[in-house]
Design a protein that fits this description.
Blueprint (H helix, E strand, L loop, with lengths): L3 H15 L14 E6 L8 E4 L4 E5 L17 E2 L8 E2 L4 E5 L4 E5 L9 E4 L5 E4 L9 E4 L8 E3 L11 E4 L5 E4 L6 E5 L8 E2 L1 H5 L12 E4 L5 E5 L2 E6 L4 E5 L16 E4 L13 E5 L6 H6 L9 E6 L8 E4 L8 E4 L5 E4 L2 E4 L6 E4 L4 E3 L9 E3 L11 E5 L5 E5 L19 E5 L13 E4 L4 E3 L4 E7 L10 E7 L2 E3 L2 E3 L2 E6 L2 E6 L2 E7 L10 E9 L2 E2 L3 E5 L1
Parallel strand pairs: 34-44
Antiparallel strand pairs: 1-32, 2-3, 2-37, 3-6, 4-5, 6-7, 8-9, 9-10, 10-11, 12-13, 13-14, 14-15, 16-17, 17-18, 18-19, 20-21, 21-22, 22-23, 24-25, 25-28, 26-27, 28-29, 30-31, 31-32, 33-35, 35-41, 36-39, 36-42, 37-38, 40-41, 42-43, 42-44
Length: 548
Amino acid sequence: MASPSFIFSIILLHFLFASLPSHRTLTFAADGSWQLLQKSVGISAMHMQLLRNDRVIMFDRTDFGPSNLLLPNGKCRNDPTDTALQVDCTAHSVEYDVFANKFRALTVQTDVWCSSGAIMPDGNLFQTGGFNDGERRVRVFSPCRTCDWNEIPNGLTAKRWYASNHILPDGRQIIVGGRGQFNYEFIPKNIVSNKINLPFLSETNDKGIENNLYPFVFLNVDGNLFIFANNRAILFDYLNNIVVKKYPMIPGGEPRSYPSTGSAVLLPLKNLKAAAIEAEVLVCGGAPKGSYLQSLKGTFMAALNTCARIKITDPNPEWVMETMPLARVMGDMILLPNGNVLLINGAGSGTAGWEQGRDPVLSPVLYQPDNNIGSRFEVQNPTTIPRMYHSTAALLRDGRVLVGGSNPHAFYNFTGVLFPTELSLEAFSPAYLDAKFDKMRPTIIAPKSMSGIRYRKKYTIQVVINSDKVDESSVSVTMFAPAFNTHSFSMNQRLLVLGNEKVTAVGNSIYNIEATTPKSGNLAPSGFYLLFVVHQGIPSQGIWVRLH
Protein backbone atom coordinates (compact mmCIF):
# COMPACT_ATOMS: atom_id res chain seq x y z
CA MET A 1 0.00 0.00 0.00
CA ALA A 2 1.32 3.47 -0.89
CA SER A 3 2.53 5.64 1.96
CA PRO A 4 0.42 8.62 3.06
CA SER A 5 3.20 11.01 1.97
CA PHE A 6 3.24 9.48 -1.54
CA ILE A 7 -0.54 9.74 -1.82
CA PHE A 8 -0.36 13.35 -0.59
CA SER A 9 2.27 14.14 -3.23
CA ILE A 10 0.10 12.66 -6.00
CA ILE A 11 -2.93 14.63 -4.78
CA LEU A 12 -0.83 17.80 -4.58
CA LEU A 13 0.53 17.33 -8.11
CA HIS A 14 -2.98 16.63 -9.41
CA PHE A 15 -4.24 19.78 -7.71
CA LEU A 16 -1.42 21.89 -9.11
CA PHE A 17 -1.96 20.72 -12.68
CA ALA A 18 -5.74 20.92 -12.39
CA SER A 19 -5.50 24.42 -11.00
CA LEU A 20 -3.62 25.72 -14.02
CA PRO A 21 -6.68 27.05 -15.85
CA SER A 22 -7.05 27.60 -19.53
CA HIS A 23 -6.80 31.31 -18.78
CA ARG A 24 -3.01 30.84 -18.48
CA THR A 25 -2.71 32.45 -15.04
CA LEU A 26 0.45 31.61 -13.10
CA THR A 27 -0.17 31.45 -9.38
CA PHE A 28 3.42 32.18 -8.39
CA ALA A 29 3.35 35.72 -9.79
CA ALA A 30 3.92 38.26 -7.04
CA ASP A 31 4.40 41.72 -8.51
CA GLY A 32 2.02 44.39 -9.74
CA SER A 33 -1.59 45.10 -8.82
CA TRP A 34 -4.86 45.70 -10.62
CA GLN A 35 -7.64 48.24 -10.10
CA LEU A 36 -11.04 48.34 -11.79
CA LEU A 37 -11.52 51.98 -12.78
CA GLN A 38 -14.83 51.83 -14.63
CA LYS A 39 -17.18 48.90 -14.98
CA SER A 40 -18.36 50.43 -18.23
CA VAL A 41 -17.42 53.43 -20.35
CA GLY A 42 -20.20 52.52 -22.78
CA ILE A 43 -17.92 51.53 -25.65
CA SER A 44 -15.21 48.92 -26.14
CA ALA A 45 -11.81 50.64 -26.25
CA MET A 46 -10.43 49.28 -29.54
CA HIS A 47 -8.14 52.30 -30.05
CA MET A 48 -6.46 54.39 -27.34
CA GLN A 49 -4.27 57.53 -27.17
CA LEU A 50 -3.10 59.58 -24.17
CA LEU A 51 -3.16 63.35 -24.74
CA ARG A 52 -1.10 66.12 -23.12
CA ASN A 53 -4.01 67.10 -20.83
CA ASP A 54 -4.08 63.63 -19.23
CA ARG A 55 -7.17 62.60 -21.12
CA VAL A 56 -7.25 59.35 -23.06
CA ILE A 57 -9.18 59.25 -26.33
CA MET A 58 -10.80 55.88 -27.07
CA PHE A 59 -13.04 54.63 -29.85
CA ASP A 60 -14.31 51.39 -31.39
CA ARG A 61 -16.37 51.44 -34.62
CA THR A 62 -19.65 52.92 -35.80
CA ASP A 63 -20.95 49.70 -37.34
CA PHE A 64 -21.09 47.69 -34.09
CA GLY A 65 -24.69 48.84 -33.67
CA PRO A 66 -25.82 50.99 -30.72
CA SER A 67 -23.33 51.30 -27.85
CA ASN A 68 -24.18 51.60 -24.15
CA LEU A 69 -23.51 55.35 -24.03
CA LEU A 70 -25.91 57.96 -25.38
CA LEU A 71 -24.64 61.02 -27.19
CA PRO A 72 -25.36 64.20 -25.17
CA ASN A 73 -28.37 66.48 -25.59
CA GLY A 74 -30.32 64.10 -27.80
CA LYS A 75 -27.67 64.25 -30.50
CA CYS A 76 -27.70 61.56 -33.21
CA ARG A 77 -25.40 60.59 -36.05
CA ASN A 78 -27.10 60.27 -39.44
CA ASP A 79 -25.11 58.13 -41.84
CA PRO A 80 -27.03 56.48 -44.70
CA THR A 81 -23.92 54.52 -45.68
CA ASP A 82 -23.39 52.84 -42.28
CA THR A 83 -23.65 49.07 -42.52
CA ALA A 84 -25.27 48.59 -39.09
CA LEU A 85 -27.28 51.65 -38.03
CA GLN A 86 -28.01 54.65 -40.22
CA VAL A 87 -29.40 56.78 -37.37
CA ASP A 88 -27.36 56.24 -34.23
CA CYS A 89 -27.86 58.25 -31.05
CA THR A 90 -25.08 56.48 -29.17
CA ALA A 91 -21.37 57.23 -28.87
CA HIS A 92 -18.52 55.24 -30.36
CA SER A 93 -15.76 57.38 -28.91
CA VAL A 94 -15.08 58.67 -25.39
CA GLU A 95 -12.65 60.97 -23.64
CA TYR A 96 -11.44 59.52 -20.33
CA ASP A 97 -10.13 61.93 -17.68
CA VAL A 98 -7.38 59.93 -15.97
CA PHE A 99 -7.15 61.73 -12.65
CA ALA A 100 -10.85 62.48 -12.24
CA ASN A 101 -11.72 58.92 -13.35
CA LYS A 102 -14.59 60.27 -15.44
CA PHE A 103 -15.51 60.05 -19.11
CA ARG A 104 -17.62 61.89 -21.67
CA ALA A 105 -19.10 60.89 -25.00
CA LEU A 106 -17.53 62.06 -28.27
CA THR A 107 -18.94 61.98 -31.80
CA VAL A 108 -17.28 60.37 -34.79
CA GLN A 109 -19.14 60.92 -38.05
CA THR A 110 -17.70 58.03 -40.07
CA ASP A 111 -16.43 54.53 -39.39
CA VAL A 112 -13.11 54.46 -37.49
CA TRP A 113 -12.87 50.66 -37.36
CA CYS A 114 -9.28 49.34 -37.43
CA SER A 115 -7.75 52.74 -38.08
CA SER A 116 -4.46 54.36 -37.09
CA GLY A 117 -3.06 57.65 -35.83
CA ALA A 118 -0.38 59.68 -34.06
CA ILE A 119 0.07 62.90 -32.11
CA MET A 120 1.27 65.84 -34.20
CA PRO A 121 3.96 68.22 -32.86
CA ASP A 122 1.28 70.68 -31.70
CA GLY A 123 -0.30 67.99 -29.50
CA ASN A 124 -3.35 67.36 -31.68
CA LEU A 125 -4.33 63.78 -32.43
CA PHE A 126 -4.51 63.06 -36.16
CA GLN A 127 -6.35 59.80 -36.74
CA THR A 128 -6.54 58.27 -40.19
CA GLY A 129 -8.66 55.88 -42.16
CA GLY A 130 -11.05 53.15 -41.11
CA PHE A 131 -13.75 51.22 -42.89
CA ASN A 132 -16.47 52.00 -45.44
CA ASP A 133 -17.16 55.75 -45.43
CA GLY A 134 -14.25 56.32 -43.07
CA GLU A 135 -11.48 54.76 -45.13
CA ARG A 136 -10.11 58.04 -46.56
CA ARG A 137 -10.94 60.33 -43.65
CA VAL A 138 -8.51 62.24 -41.48
CA ARG A 139 -9.94 63.10 -38.06
CA VAL A 140 -8.47 65.68 -35.73
CA PHE A 141 -8.93 65.91 -31.98
CA SER A 142 -7.56 68.89 -30.05
CA PRO A 143 -6.98 68.53 -26.30
CA CYS A 144 -9.54 70.71 -24.53
CA ARG A 145 -12.36 70.14 -22.07
CA THR A 146 -15.16 70.59 -24.60
CA CYS A 147 -13.50 69.60 -27.89
CA ASP A 148 -14.87 66.93 -30.19
CA TRP A 149 -13.75 65.24 -33.40
CA ASN A 150 -13.33 67.25 -36.61
CA GLU A 151 -13.27 65.26 -39.85
CA ILE A 152 -11.51 66.00 -43.14
CA PRO A 153 -13.20 64.23 -46.08
CA ASN A 154 -10.74 62.75 -48.57
CA GLY A 155 -7.85 63.69 -46.32
CA LEU A 156 -6.08 60.54 -47.49
CA THR A 157 -5.05 59.65 -51.02
CA ALA A 158 -5.62 55.91 -50.53
CA LYS A 159 -8.10 53.86 -48.55
CA ARG A 160 -6.40 53.02 -45.24
CA TRP A 161 -7.64 50.08 -43.16
CA TYR A 162 -5.19 48.26 -40.83
CA ALA A 163 -2.38 50.73 -41.60
CA SER A 164 0.38 52.05 -39.29
CA ASN A 165 1.39 55.67 -38.70
CA HIS A 166 4.57 57.31 -37.46
CA ILE A 167 5.45 60.92 -36.73
CA LEU A 168 8.50 62.12 -38.69
CA PRO A 169 11.30 64.56 -37.86
CA ASP A 170 9.80 67.15 -40.23
CA GLY A 171 6.46 67.09 -38.37
CA ARG A 172 4.50 65.06 -40.93
CA GLN A 173 3.00 61.64 -40.38
CA ILE A 174 3.76 58.73 -42.67
CA ILE A 175 0.98 56.17 -43.14
CA VAL A 176 2.24 52.74 -44.18
CA GLY A 177 0.18 50.00 -45.77
CA GLY A 178 -3.29 48.84 -44.96
CA ARG A 179 -5.49 46.15 -46.49
CA GLY A 180 -4.78 45.96 -50.20
CA GLN A 181 -2.47 48.99 -50.02
CA PHE A 182 1.16 48.13 -50.72
CA ASN A 183 2.21 51.77 -50.49
CA TYR A 184 2.56 54.73 -48.18
CA GLU A 185 1.55 58.38 -48.02
CA PHE A 186 1.99 61.46 -45.86
CA ILE A 187 -0.23 63.86 -43.95
CA PRO A 188 -0.55 66.74 -44.21
CA LYS A 189 -0.40 66.30 -47.99
CA ASN A 190 2.26 68.44 -49.63
CA ILE A 191 2.68 66.79 -53.02
CA VAL A 192 0.23 65.95 -55.78
CA SER A 193 1.29 62.30 -56.11
CA ASN A 194 1.01 61.27 -52.46
CA LYS A 195 0.69 57.48 -52.83
CA ILE A 196 4.08 55.84 -53.24
CA ASN A 197 4.52 52.12 -53.89
CA LEU A 198 6.36 49.97 -51.35
CA PRO A 199 6.95 46.48 -52.86
CA PHE A 200 8.06 45.10 -49.47
CA LEU A 201 4.42 45.10 -48.39
CA SER A 202 3.30 42.94 -51.31
CA GLU A 203 6.31 40.64 -50.83
CA THR A 204 5.28 39.98 -47.21
CA ASN A 205 1.61 39.38 -48.02
CA ASP A 206 0.55 35.74 -47.47
CA LYS A 207 -2.18 35.10 -50.03
CA GLY A 208 -5.59 34.67 -48.41
CA ILE A 209 -4.20 35.37 -44.92
CA GLU A 210 -2.14 38.59 -45.21
CA ASN A 211 0.03 38.42 -42.06
CA ASN A 212 1.44 41.85 -42.88
CA LEU A 213 -1.22 44.31 -41.70
CA TYR A 214 -0.48 46.93 -39.05
CA PRO A 215 3.24 46.71 -39.88
CA PHE A 216 5.62 47.60 -37.03
CA VAL A 217 7.15 50.95 -37.97
CA PHE A 218 9.92 52.69 -35.99
CA LEU A 219 12.02 55.77 -36.68
CA ASN A 220 15.66 54.71 -36.56
CA VAL A 221 18.36 56.98 -35.14
CA ASP A 222 19.67 57.69 -38.66
CA GLY A 223 16.30 59.10 -39.78
CA ASN A 224 15.30 56.05 -41.82
CA LEU A 225 12.33 53.84 -40.96
CA PHE A 226 12.55 50.28 -39.68
CA ILE A 227 9.50 48.52 -41.15
CA PHE A 228 8.62 45.00 -40.05
CA ALA A 229 5.88 42.91 -41.66
CA ASN A 230 5.10 39.19 -41.37
CA ASN A 231 8.49 37.75 -40.35
CA ARG A 232 11.10 40.16 -41.70
CA ALA A 233 12.05 43.81 -41.95
CA ILE A 234 13.69 46.51 -44.01
CA LEU A 235 15.41 49.81 -43.28
CA PHE A 236 13.67 52.32 -45.50
CA ASP A 237 14.63 55.78 -46.73
CA TYR A 238 11.13 57.22 -47.13
CA LEU A 239 12.43 60.52 -48.54
CA ASN A 240 13.97 58.83 -51.57
CA ASN A 241 11.85 55.63 -51.65
CA ILE A 242 14.92 53.42 -51.26
CA VAL A 243 15.38 50.21 -49.27
CA VAL A 244 18.63 50.87 -47.42
CA LYS A 245 18.92 47.44 -45.87
CA LYS A 246 17.12 44.11 -45.79
CA TYR A 247 17.21 42.41 -42.40
CA PRO A 248 17.32 38.62 -42.06
CA MET A 249 14.10 36.71 -41.51
CA ILE A 250 13.30 35.86 -37.90
CA PRO A 251 14.61 32.31 -37.28
CA GLY A 252 11.81 29.83 -37.89
CA GLY A 253 9.99 32.24 -40.20
CA GLU A 254 6.78 32.31 -38.15
CA PRO A 255 4.48 35.29 -38.83
CA ARG A 256 4.25 38.09 -36.26
CA SER A 257 1.91 40.57 -37.98
CA TYR A 258 -1.89 40.78 -38.16
CA PRO A 259 -3.79 38.46 -38.08
CA SER A 260 -1.01 36.30 -36.60
CA THR A 261 -0.66 39.21 -34.27
CA GLY A 262 2.47 39.63 -32.20
CA SER A 263 3.73 42.96 -30.88
CA ALA A 264 6.92 45.00 -31.04
CA VAL A 265 8.79 47.88 -29.40
CA LEU A 266 11.79 49.99 -30.13
CA LEU A 267 13.80 49.40 -26.95
CA PRO A 268 14.86 52.49 -24.95
CA LEU A 269 17.44 54.65 -26.73
CA LYS A 270 20.52 55.30 -24.57
CA ASN A 271 23.92 57.01 -24.71
CA LEU A 272 22.34 59.79 -26.73
CA LYS A 273 25.50 61.94 -26.87
CA ALA A 274 27.53 59.14 -28.48
CA ALA A 275 28.73 59.47 -32.06
CA ALA A 276 27.05 56.15 -32.91
CA ILE A 277 23.82 55.44 -31.05
CA GLU A 278 22.53 51.87 -30.96
CA ALA A 279 18.90 51.01 -31.58
CA GLU A 280 17.25 47.66 -30.87
CA VAL A 281 13.83 46.28 -31.73
CA LEU A 282 12.05 43.53 -29.79
CA VAL A 283 9.27 41.48 -31.42
CA CYS A 284 7.27 39.13 -29.17
CA GLY A 285 4.56 36.54 -29.65
CA GLY A 286 2.32 35.90 -32.62
CA ALA A 287 0.81 32.77 -34.12
CA PRO A 288 2.46 29.95 -36.08
CA LYS A 289 1.95 29.34 -39.77
CA GLY A 290 -1.45 27.81 -40.44
CA SER A 291 -2.97 29.09 -37.23
CA TYR A 292 -5.30 31.58 -38.90
CA LEU A 293 -6.86 29.06 -41.30
CA GLN A 294 -7.09 26.42 -38.57
CA SER A 295 -8.89 28.83 -36.25
CA LEU A 296 -11.53 29.39 -38.93
CA LYS A 297 -12.18 25.64 -38.72
CA GLY A 298 -12.41 25.65 -34.91
CA THR A 299 -8.88 24.40 -34.19
CA PHE A 300 -6.86 26.82 -32.10
CA MET A 301 -3.12 26.33 -32.33
CA ALA A 302 -0.89 27.43 -29.45
CA ALA A 303 0.49 30.94 -29.78
CA LEU A 304 4.20 31.59 -30.21
CA ASN A 305 6.23 31.71 -27.01
CA THR A 306 9.29 33.43 -28.46
CA CYS A 307 10.66 36.94 -28.75
CA ALA A 308 13.19 38.07 -31.33
CA ARG A 309 15.57 40.95 -30.63
CA ILE A 310 17.82 42.72 -33.14
CA LYS A 311 20.25 45.65 -33.16
CA ILE A 312 18.93 47.46 -36.18
CA THR A 313 21.96 49.78 -36.30
CA ASP A 314 24.52 46.95 -36.58
CA PRO A 315 26.31 46.55 -39.94
CA ASN A 316 25.49 42.82 -39.91
CA PRO A 317 22.49 42.45 -37.61
CA GLU A 318 21.15 39.10 -36.46
CA TRP A 319 18.01 38.18 -34.52
CA VAL A 320 18.56 36.82 -31.02
CA MET A 321 15.76 34.52 -29.86
CA GLU A 322 14.34 34.39 -26.33
CA THR A 323 11.61 32.27 -24.78
CA MET A 324 8.73 33.89 -22.91
CA PRO A 325 7.26 32.25 -19.81
CA LEU A 326 3.81 32.50 -21.44
CA ALA A 327 2.90 32.07 -25.11
CA ARG A 328 0.95 35.08 -26.33
CA VAL A 329 -0.91 36.29 -29.42
CA MET A 330 -2.68 39.68 -29.58
CA GLY A 331 -0.59 40.95 -26.68
CA ASP A 332 0.54 44.55 -26.19
CA MET A 333 4.05 45.76 -25.38
CA ILE A 334 4.25 48.93 -23.30
CA LEU A 335 7.47 50.78 -22.48
CA LEU A 336 7.68 51.75 -18.81
CA PRO A 337 9.42 54.91 -17.51
CA ASN A 338 12.29 52.90 -16.02
CA GLY A 339 13.14 51.25 -19.33
CA ASN A 340 11.42 47.91 -18.79
CA VAL A 341 8.77 46.53 -21.14
CA LEU A 342 5.37 45.24 -20.06
CA LEU A 343 3.74 42.45 -22.10
CA ILE A 344 0.02 42.52 -21.39
CA ASN A 345 -3.35 41.37 -22.82
CA GLY A 346 -3.90 38.66 -25.41
CA ALA A 347 -4.55 34.96 -25.81
CA GLY A 348 -2.65 31.71 -25.51
CA SER A 349 -4.00 30.20 -28.73
CA GLY A 350 -5.66 31.13 -32.01
CA THR A 351 -5.26 34.41 -33.90
CA ALA A 352 -6.82 37.82 -34.32
CA GLY A 353 -10.26 37.80 -35.92
CA TRP A 354 -13.89 37.22 -35.01
CA GLU A 355 -14.14 34.39 -32.45
CA GLN A 356 -10.65 33.16 -33.42
CA GLY A 357 -8.78 33.41 -30.10
CA ARG A 358 -8.85 31.16 -27.04
CA ASP A 359 -7.15 30.79 -23.64
CA PRO A 360 -6.87 34.38 -22.34
CA VAL A 361 -3.48 35.24 -20.90
CA LEU A 362 -4.41 37.06 -17.72
CA SER A 363 -0.89 37.54 -16.35
CA PRO A 364 1.28 40.34 -17.69
CA VAL A 365 5.00 39.69 -18.04
CA LEU A 366 7.76 42.19 -17.30
CA TYR A 367 10.72 42.19 -19.69
CA GLN A 368 13.95 43.70 -18.34
CA PRO A 369 16.10 44.39 -21.42
CA ASP A 370 19.32 45.13 -19.50
CA ASN A 371 19.34 41.76 -17.71
CA ASN A 372 21.17 38.76 -19.11
CA ILE A 373 19.30 36.37 -21.39
CA GLY A 374 17.49 33.87 -19.20
CA SER A 375 16.69 36.40 -16.48
CA ARG A 376 14.76 39.06 -18.39
CA PHE A 377 11.18 37.86 -17.95
CA GLU A 378 9.12 38.09 -14.76
CA VAL A 379 5.48 37.03 -14.56
CA GLN A 380 3.18 39.56 -12.87
CA ASN A 381 -0.05 39.27 -10.93
CA PRO A 382 -3.09 38.42 -13.10
CA THR A 383 -6.24 40.31 -13.89
CA THR A 384 -9.62 38.59 -13.81
CA ILE A 385 -10.86 40.11 -17.08
CA PRO A 386 -9.92 38.48 -20.40
CA ARG A 387 -8.54 41.00 -22.87
CA MET A 388 -8.76 39.31 -26.24
CA TYR A 389 -9.10 40.66 -29.78
CA HIS A 390 -9.50 44.47 -29.89
CA SER A 391 -7.92 45.15 -26.48
CA THR A 392 -5.73 48.15 -25.73
CA ALA A 393 -3.18 49.45 -23.23
CA ALA A 394 -1.42 52.79 -22.61
CA LEU A 395 1.12 54.16 -20.16
CA LEU A 396 -0.21 57.00 -18.00
CA ARG A 397 1.67 59.94 -16.49
CA ASP A 398 1.57 58.44 -12.99
CA GLY A 399 3.25 55.22 -14.19
CA ARG A 400 0.15 53.03 -14.28
CA VAL A 401 -0.87 51.20 -17.44
CA LEU A 402 -4.46 51.76 -18.57
CA VAL A 403 -6.12 48.63 -20.01
CA GLY A 404 -9.40 48.43 -21.89
CA GLY A 405 -11.29 46.87 -24.76
CA SER A 406 -11.79 43.28 -25.91
CA ASN A 407 -14.48 42.51 -28.42
CA PRO A 408 -13.91 39.44 -30.61
CA HIS A 409 -17.43 39.77 -32.06
CA ALA A 410 -18.82 41.51 -35.14
CA PHE A 411 -21.27 43.41 -32.90
CA TYR A 412 -21.62 44.22 -29.20
CA ASN A 413 -22.28 40.83 -27.65
CA PHE A 414 -22.66 40.47 -23.89
CA THR A 415 -24.31 37.08 -23.41
CA GLY A 416 -24.01 33.51 -24.62
CA VAL A 417 -20.41 33.83 -25.79
CA LEU A 418 -17.05 32.73 -24.39
CA PHE A 419 -15.67 36.26 -24.17
CA PRO A 420 -18.38 38.93 -23.91
CA THR A 421 -17.76 42.41 -25.27
CA GLU A 422 -15.78 44.24 -22.60
CA LEU A 423 -16.63 47.86 -21.78
CA SER A 424 -14.56 48.17 -18.61
CA LEU A 425 -11.34 50.03 -17.87
CA GLU A 426 -8.64 48.75 -15.54
CA ALA A 427 -5.26 50.02 -14.42
CA PHE A 428 -2.24 47.81 -13.87
CA SER A 429 0.22 49.24 -11.36
CA PRO A 430 3.74 47.86 -11.78
CA ALA A 431 5.63 47.00 -8.62
CA TYR A 432 7.47 50.32 -8.70
CA LEU A 433 4.24 51.98 -7.51
CA ASP A 434 4.16 49.93 -4.29
CA ALA A 435 4.05 52.08 -1.15
CA LYS A 436 7.24 50.43 0.13
CA PHE A 437 9.15 52.40 -2.51
CA ASP A 438 7.70 55.81 -1.60
CA LYS A 439 10.90 57.07 0.07
CA MET A 440 12.91 56.18 -3.04
CA ARG A 441 10.42 57.79 -5.42
CA PRO A 442 11.48 61.17 -6.85
CA THR A 443 9.03 64.05 -7.00
CA ILE A 444 9.74 66.61 -9.73
CA ILE A 445 9.40 70.21 -8.49
CA ALA A 446 11.03 71.97 -11.45
CA PRO A 447 10.56 72.57 -14.32
CA LYS A 448 6.84 73.04 -14.28
CA SER A 449 4.63 70.90 -16.47
CA MET A 450 4.21 72.10 -20.08
CA SER A 451 7.64 73.70 -20.14
CA GLY A 452 9.29 74.03 -23.52
CA ILE A 453 12.66 72.36 -24.06
CA ARG A 454 15.02 72.51 -27.03
CA TYR A 455 17.29 70.05 -28.75
CA ARG A 456 20.87 69.55 -27.57
CA LYS A 457 20.43 71.71 -24.44
CA LYS A 458 21.43 70.97 -20.86
CA TYR A 459 18.62 71.35 -18.34
CA THR A 460 18.39 71.08 -14.57
CA ILE A 461 15.56 69.00 -13.18
CA GLN A 462 14.92 69.54 -9.48
CA VAL A 463 13.45 66.70 -7.45
CA VAL A 464 12.68 65.69 -3.91
CA ILE A 465 13.93 62.24 -2.89
CA ASN A 466 13.31 61.29 0.74
CA SER A 467 15.67 58.33 0.66
CA ASP A 468 18.44 58.26 3.29
CA LYS A 469 21.05 57.98 0.55
CA VAL A 470 20.93 58.89 -3.12
CA ASP A 471 23.57 57.32 -5.33
CA GLU A 472 24.26 59.55 -8.34
CA SER A 473 24.71 56.52 -10.59
CA SER A 474 21.19 55.29 -9.75
CA VAL A 475 19.43 58.46 -10.97
CA SER A 476 18.32 58.88 -14.57
CA VAL A 477 16.06 61.15 -16.60
CA THR A 478 13.82 59.57 -19.24
CA MET A 479 11.43 60.94 -21.88
CA PHE A 480 8.43 59.01 -23.19
CA ALA A 481 6.40 59.63 -26.35
CA PRO A 482 2.78 58.51 -25.73
CA ALA A 483 1.55 56.05 -28.33
CA PHE A 484 -1.52 55.42 -30.43
CA ASN A 485 -2.44 51.87 -29.43
CA THR A 486 -4.58 49.44 -31.38
CA HIS A 487 -4.36 45.82 -32.53
CA SER A 488 -1.34 45.04 -30.33
CA PHE A 489 0.86 47.82 -31.70
CA SER A 490 1.68 51.10 -30.00
CA MET A 491 2.46 53.46 -32.87
CA ASN A 492 5.04 56.17 -32.21
CA GLN A 493 5.96 54.72 -28.79
CA ARG A 494 9.46 55.81 -27.79
CA LEU A 495 11.54 56.07 -24.61
CA LEU A 496 14.76 58.10 -24.48
CA VAL A 497 17.18 57.68 -21.60
CA LEU A 498 18.86 61.04 -20.98
CA GLY A 499 20.68 59.69 -17.94
CA ASN A 500 22.34 62.34 -15.79
CA GLU A 501 25.49 64.40 -16.07
CA LYS A 502 25.54 65.60 -12.49
CA VAL A 503 23.45 65.17 -9.34
CA THR A 504 23.80 67.86 -6.67
CA ALA A 505 22.27 67.76 -3.19
CA VAL A 506 20.93 71.21 -2.27
CA GLY A 507 19.44 70.33 1.12
CA ASN A 508 16.09 69.25 2.56
CA SER A 509 16.08 66.11 0.36
CA ILE A 510 16.18 68.30 -2.75
CA TYR A 511 18.49 67.38 -5.62
CA ASN A 512 19.40 69.07 -8.89
CA ILE A 513 19.87 66.70 -11.83
CA GLU A 514 21.58 67.89 -14.99
CA ALA A 515 20.67 66.18 -18.26
CA THR A 516 20.98 67.01 -21.95
CA THR A 517 18.10 66.69 -24.39
CA PRO A 518 18.36 64.66 -27.65
CA LYS A 519 20.41 66.23 -30.41
CA SER A 520 17.95 65.90 -33.28
CA GLY A 521 14.48 64.98 -34.47
CA ASN A 522 15.82 61.66 -35.71
CA LEU A 523 16.15 60.64 -32.07
CA ALA A 524 13.02 62.38 -30.85
CA PRO A 525 10.60 64.10 -33.24
CA SER A 526 9.35 67.43 -31.91
CA GLY A 527 6.24 67.33 -29.80
CA PHE A 528 4.93 66.56 -26.32
CA TYR A 529 6.73 64.04 -24.11
CA LEU A 530 6.40 62.76 -20.58
CA LEU A 531 9.57 63.46 -18.61
CA PHE A 532 10.39 61.18 -15.66
CA VAL A 533 13.16 60.96 -13.09
CA VAL A 534 14.03 57.39 -12.15
CA HIS A 535 15.84 56.52 -8.91
CA GLN A 536 16.96 52.93 -8.39
CA GLY A 537 14.36 51.80 -10.91
CA ILE A 538 11.54 53.76 -9.23
CA PRO A 539 10.10 56.49 -11.48
CA SER A 540 8.62 59.79 -10.45
CA GLN A 541 5.26 60.88 -11.69
CA GLY A 542 5.86 62.36 -15.12
CA ILE A 543 5.54 65.96 -16.22
CA TRP A 544 4.62 67.10 -19.72
CA VAL A 545 7.31 68.89 -21.72
CA ARG A 546 7.29 70.16 -25.29
CA LEU A 547 10.42 69.42 -27.30
CA HIS A 548 11.08 71.69 -30.27
